[in-house]
Amino acid sequence: MALNRVERLLGGDTLSKIQHAKIIIFGVGGVGSWTAEALVRSGVRYLTIVDADDVAESNINRQLMALHSTVNRPKVEVLKARLLDIAPDAEIVAVKKLYNADTASEFELQDYDYVIDAIDSLSDKALLILNATAVRTKLYSSMGAALKLDPQKIQVAEFWKVQGCPLAAALRHKFKRSGMMPRRKFKCVYSPELLANVADAPQDKSGAMSFNKVRINGALCHITGTFGFFMAGLVIEDICKG
Q1: Class of domain 4-241 (CATH, top level)
Q2: Whole-angstrom Cα distance, residue 217 to residue 200?
Q3: Residue 132 burial by CB count (10 A; 0-12/13-18/19+): exposed, middle or buried?
Q4: How many CB atoms lie within 10 A of CB 171?
Q5: Which of 30, 44, 75, 170 is deepest in the core (most CB within 10 A)?
Q6: Burial of 57 by CB count in 10 Å (0-12 exposed, 13-18 middle, 19+ buried)?
Q7: pLDDT higher for 33 or 202?
Q8: Torsion angles phi and psi, residue 156, rounded to 5
C-alpha cells in the first residue's frame, strides 16, 4: 500500500523496474540526502549511500537527517535508519568513507544501474566522473548548490553545456589540463545563479569533519532539496523511459 500512488501513476511494470534498480549515491549532504529520500519513497529498494562525514550542527538548516538529536552521528547511519523506516524491506548499504584515489578501487561502479554524484571535493568529484563514465552505468552529477536563492533557475544540462556554474567550469578546466576526459556524456543539475556571502557567521564548533572544502558558503534548504529532487527525478524518468 505504501507505493499505491506510485503504481497508479507509473504502472506495475515500471514500479517493478524502480524496485529492482541498483543505485549508489556519493555524498549525502544537502543534495544527496534528499535524493536518497525521494528515491526510496518512489520505490527504490537497492541503494548504497557513501559519505565520510558526521552530522554537524551547521548541517541542520539544509540536510535531511541533520537534527539536534543526531549531531556527531555518522550521516550514512542516521540516513539509513530513516530510509528503512520508510521502506523496511529495502536493502540500504551505508558506507562511511570518502570516495578518493585511495578508496575508488573498493567501489565496483559497474555493478550499479545508476551512480549519483553529490560530492563537494573537486578532485574526488572529477575522479568519480572519470570512473563512472568509463563503465556501463548511468551517471547523474550535481553541480554547486550553494550561494543560490531562486529555485526557478535550477535546471538540467549535459555537462559540457552547463553555463554559469563555477564548479562545472572548474571541472572542465581540470579535465582539459590533465588530458583525462569523461568517456561519455552525462547530465548535471545546476543553477546559473551566483550570489555572494553577505556575512561572516560563526564557524561550526561541533568538531564534525569537513573534507577538502576550500571555503564555507551559505546554502538554503529549498535549493539543496530541489537539487536533490531533480537528481532523483532524472533517475525515475530514465527508468520510465527504459
Answers
A1: alpha beta
A2: 10
A3: buried
A4: 21
A5: 75
A6: middle
A7: 33
A8: -125, 140
User: Is the Cβ–Cβ distance between 47 and 93 less than 8 Å?
Assistant: yes
| Euclidean distance between CA atoms 64 and 78, whole angstroms | 10
Among 130, 109, 85, 94, CA closest to 22: 109
Q: What is the pLDDT of residue 52?
A: 97
Work out the end-to-end distance of the chain between its first and last CA atoms, rounded to an integer number of angstroms: 25
pTM: 0.94
SS3 227: helix
Helices (H), 110-207: 122-132, 166-178
* Res. 209 pLDDT band, cuts 50 70 90: very low
Work out the burial of residue 59: count CB atoms within 10 Å of its CB; fewer than 13 is exposed, 13-18 middle, 19 or more buried. Answer: buried
Taking the C-alpha atoms of residue 76 and residue 220, their distance in angstroms, rounded to an integer, is 21
